[in-house]
Design brief:
Layout: E1 3-5, E2 15-17, E3 21-22, E4 29-38, H1 41-48, E5 57-58, E6 62-70, E7 82-85, H2 95-98, H3 107-111, E8 117-119, E9 122-126, E10 136-140, E11 144-146, H4 153-159, H5 162-174, E12 181-185, H6 189-201, E13 205-209, H7 213-221, E14 226-228, H8 233-241, E15 246-251, H9 256-265, E16 266-274, H10 288-294, E17 297-300, H11 308-320, E18 330-335, H12 339-348, E19 353-357
Parallel strand pairs: 5-9, 12-13, 12-15, 13-14, 15-16, 16-17, 18-19
Antiparallel strand pairs: 1-2, 3-8, 4-6, 4-10, 4-19, 6-7, 7-11, 8-9
Helix pairs in contact: 5-6, 5-11
Length: about 350
Amino acid sequence: MRAAVQHETGQDKLEVLDDVEAVGFGPGKVRIRIRTTGLCHSDLSAMNGVLPQPVPFVPGHEGAGEVVDVGDGVTGLAAGDRVLMCWLPACGSCPSCKRGQTHLCLAGFMNAGTPNFRRPGGDVFGFAGTGTFAEEVVVAANCAVPIPDDVPYEIAALIGCGVTTGLGAALNTAQVAAGSSVAVIGCGGVGISVIQGARVCGAARIVAVDPVPARREAALRFGATEAVAPEELDGAKAEFTGGEGFDYVFEVVGRSATARTAYETTRRGGTLCVVGAGAMDDTFRVNMFELFFDEKRILPSLYGGGDVLRSYERAIALWRAGRIDLEGLITHRVRLAEINDALDQMRSGTALRTCIEI
């Protein structure tokens, strides 16, 4: 079958090969025919080494398709079922799951160390234990979440990561209050989803911050009340908050420099929500006096900070009701053979989300 493979960390191009085999099928597993996948910035971060990932590997974790086969012991799924890919499934029995913090379950991360593809030259890993830049993938059954018939594959794919992450940061983690002021630093697909989440929560002012003019324009279409370049943020803080700072600031870039800017843009007693996935050697610093004196809440948000299955259902309900726009997030469409075009679109900032048809 065909799959896009990264051979070495740091390579900026993927090679589309036709000699890849999905392996590992057996009890408790399902085989999925991928129909559509989105390109998430985390895929780029794995390619360039910001996020740890064994090589060679097949990127992609934001996918949807249909079940081809189910292994022994699998219940609730059958061949032909339409599903989205959950790259962080909950085991239901670990301490995090028992506390109700299923998004902190490590079972899914453990899958990342087991190859789920093979080529004539040896084993190939799937990013985050999945690898959706492939025609088929074998995953644990709890990675396959059934979707209603009225949800297109491309919409389901987005819900599988970026939409859930962004909406959840606003609704679950920060719990944005109605009438509040919000700034969102980084307005790609996840940042736009944060903006939509803040709008659903009833935020009165939502300021989008991004260096790319096209993304600022898009942010206004999705619910931002203002959109500024990074160098204009101080002026926006002065104009819209009287210099006090915003009630909520979301960092959706994954860098300590922008996290520090977000901290300084947050009012005393306000909330800084860190959504971007950064590198292990990039350290965010605050001094002990400001930490105590300013009483700003610093809240990291992993995968939207809530039960992902409930978050999927909520996203679908909001989409059906017209409260959020998911079709508009898809700005580009390519085939798997054109995957490197999609990578260039994301790096340049011209794409919010690129839909890759497998």
